[in-house]
């Protein structure tokens, strides 16, 4: 499970010039989900760093980030 703080710590490394929160409140723990059926269909995990980079680029492209 990835926690909010882990995501922000990774973003600070990739994008050190953005303004980040100093404290975090994680939501309640969610149920475990099996991805076995998706994997049998050819789905695979993307690395967290790749997903974050693509997300930030997308937010930037639509004007949500400066």
From TrEMBL:
<protein>
    <recommendedName>
        <fullName>Epimerase domain-containing protein</fullName>
    </recommendedName>
</protein>
């Amino acid at each position: 499970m990835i926690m909010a703080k882990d995501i922000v710590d990774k973003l600070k490394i990739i994008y050190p010039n953005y303004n980040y929160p100093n404290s975090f409140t994680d939501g309640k723990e969610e149920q475990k989900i099996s991805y076995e059926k998706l994997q049998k269909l050819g789905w695979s995990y993307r690395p967290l760093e790749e997903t974050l980079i693509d997300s930030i680029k997308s937010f930037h492209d639509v004007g949500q980030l400066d």
